[in-house]
Amino acid sequence: MKGVLPPRIDLLSDTLTRPTPEMRAAMAVAEVGDDVFGEDPSVNRLEGHISGMLGKEAALFMPSGTMSNLIGLLVHCGKGDEFLCEAGCHIFNNEQAGYAQVGGIGVRPILGERGALRVDQLQEMVRPENDHLPRTRLICLEQTHNRAAGSVLPYEVVAEVCDWANQQGLARHLDGARLFNAVVASGISAADWAQHFDTVSVCFSKGLGAPVGSALCGPAEKIKLARRIRKMLGGGMRQIGGLAAAAVYALEHHIDRLAEDHTKARVLADAIRNASGLTLQCDPVDTNIVIFEVAAEKGTSEEFCASLLKRGVRLYPISRQKVRAVTHLDVTMSECEEVAEMLADS
Ligand SMILES: *Cc1c(COP(=O)(O)O)cnc(C)c1O
């Protein structure tokens, strides 16, 4: 992107948000200490805050959601073990198969609908005890589901799948990078969602608007092990209270406002639904991610995005014909209305 002006309206991802002046102020005055020794008061406050919100015994601050998910799998699975997941999930597609590279863990992906799996699809997927076979140890769900355009997995479906998994003796991990989008969209608390899982990862750097960070939450004994693995992976950080303070600020001030991002996404979705040659995927749009298909006669998704970029708007061509738009803290409603108009007569 050298020599190209930054887009005026950037819907590439909700990771693009910059810390607000108020968040920066909270970061500037944060107390700090050496977190590898457990002595950063701001990190300890954050870990207490997020574990409390999720109703878990403990939490661990992580540099990224990718590390939270990797360690979330490593505390449950060993070499030759296998986990079940939805085929479009981030862990399977977008994290370099870290579970295999680092943990010698295998994966059994299963195609879902809007990111959701049903118990009847899973029943045959747990392998019996047999010297030929990997051992099925865990199921992983994603809430909201990124590739399913930010869909919220229905509560009853999550509860049913997790109850079933529990009966099979499988551990349950939730990739909750956007769990708070699901909380706001559903009105169901984070603790209610989290109670169905042993471990839950959440991201502070997506719609919540913090510059960096994630947390893995779960039972004290698993989080103690997670802490040891985080150090091995080079994720032991020192005076990071400023970053933790940004995350605490985000949890206190940026959750309810996610509803605005969802409204903005619906404005885009309404325009796409009525535009000729554009087809909305995962209609209706539940949260802040909109995915649509561009009809071949209009060109490829890259060409479509290039023409919008010339008008100052950046969207993400995620496949040959599919485009993604993500709303967030740094785009206003009127900017989204402007993009909606461009899409309507694109
Ligand atoms: C962004 C994301 C992650 C990983 O987070 P990073 O902080 O970018 O490593 C994991 N899962 C989902 C669903 C995500 O959208």
UniProtKB/TrEMBL annotation:
<dbReference type="GO" id="GO:0005829">
    <property type="term" value="C:cytosol"/>
</dbReference>
<keyword id="KW-0663">Pyridoxal phosphate</keyword>
<dbReference type="InterPro" id="IPR015424">
    <property type="entry name" value="PyrdxlP-dep_Trfase"/>
</dbReference>
<dbReference type="InterPro" id="IPR001597">
    <property type="entry name" value="ArAA_b-elim_lyase/Thr_aldolase"/>
</dbReference>
<dbReference type="InterPro" id="IPR015422">
    <property type="entry name" value="PyrdxlP-dep_Trfase_small"/>
</dbReference>
<dbReference type="GO" id="GO:0006567">
    <property type="term" value="P:L-threonine catabolic process"/>
</dbReference>
<comment type="similarity">
    <text>Belongs to the threonine aldolase family.</text>
</comment>
<dbReference type="InterPro" id="IPR023603">
    <property type="entry name" value="Low_specificity_L-TA-like"/>
</dbReference>
<feature type="domain" description="Aromatic amino acid beta-eliminating lyase/threonine aldolase">
    <location>
        <begin position="10"/>
        <end position="295"/>
    </location>
</feature>
<dbReference type="InterPro" id="IPR015421">
    <property type="entry name" value="PyrdxlP-dep_Trfase_major"/>
</dbReference>
<dbReference type="Pfam" id="PF01212">
    <property type="entry name" value="Beta_elim_lyase"/>
</dbReference>
<dbReference type="GO" id="GO:0006545">
    <property type="term" value="P:glycine biosynthetic process"/>
</dbReference>
<protein>
    <submittedName>
        <fullName>L-allo-threonine aldolase</fullName>
        <ecNumber>4.1.2.49</ecNumber>
    </submittedName>
</protein>
<feature type="modified residue" description="N6-(pyridoxal phosphate)lysine">
    <location>
        <position position="206"/>
    </location>
</feature>
<keyword id="KW-0456">Lyase</keyword>
<dbReference type="GO" id="GO:0008732">
    <property type="term" value="F:L-allo-threonine aldolase activity"/>
</dbReference>
